[in-house]
Design brief:
mainly alpha, 3 helices
Length: 76
């Protein structure tokens, strides 16, 4: 159920970015455009990266079990 909710949130965020800025929410393009030479539309890119980091931090604080490894012998 959490995977469905997470997928829906990612889809909604990607759709909102596309509808409001006409951009695809690809992390490599967003992050790559922050490197020199700096893009003119830097503010939303920084907000996007900040939101990704904040969501991971909040998720880890709210439910630490989500970041645990599923099995001790798994190589990943």
């Amino acid at each position: 159920m959490f995977a469905l909710l997470g997928g829906a949130l990612i889809g909604a965020a990607g759709s909102l970015l596309f509808l409001t800025h006409g951009r695809i929410a690809g992390i490599s393009g967003v992050l790559g455009s922050l490197l020199p030479p700096v893009a003119r539309d830097r503010d939303w890119r920084l907000a996007f990266i900040g939101g990704l980091l904040a969501a991971g931090l909040v998720g880890g604080l709210v439910s630490p079990s989500l970041s645990e490894r599923p099995c001790a012998r798994c190589p990943w």
